[in-house]
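Hi all, long-time lurker, first post. I run a small reading group and we've been trying to get comfortable going from sequence to structure in the token notation. Rather than ask abstract questions, I figured I'd post a concrete chain and ask someone more experienced to write out its structure so we can walk through it together at our next meeting. Sequence below, copied exactly:
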Amino acid sequence: MLIFRVYLQQMTKFDSINTKILRELQYDGRISNSDLANKVALSPSACLRRVQELEKSGVITGYRAVLSPAALGVGFVAYVTVGLSRHTKKELDAFELAIANAAEVTECHNITGAVEYLLRVEVENLLAYKRFHSEVLGSLPQVSTLMSYIVMESPKDLRS
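-- Answer (accepted) --
Happy to help. Here is the structure in token form:
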């Protein structure tokens, strides 16, 4: 949310009403325009114009469904740092292609520091993670180091 605020403050026509609109849409992307207008104290037409402007300017890039991990059988989440053995474009591209095809990886970030990537991995249980760690990540020729961080609880997660 902080990055979101800093970015929006740089926009020329950004104000507290747009902040309220975005906060409400982040909480409930399916809210009706009428209900949204009531929550942010605007007329429905003015509210709709602002939402359309936020969409057109690229601040709002889309809407999505929030899925229940438990309903999907996900009971285990880990963040994994990945170090590559070589740092060529070809190796980076090959790794990213392999990860794009790994359904267990829900996020992949190219980062700075001692390693090249940070992954979010969601699977059924520890045994499924072990299999993914060994058979998928461990089999990629580009990978030289892996470090797993197991999520025990998520007291704040804006994705849910």
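A couple of things your group might point at:
The longest helix spans residues 44-56.
The radius of gyration is 20 Å.
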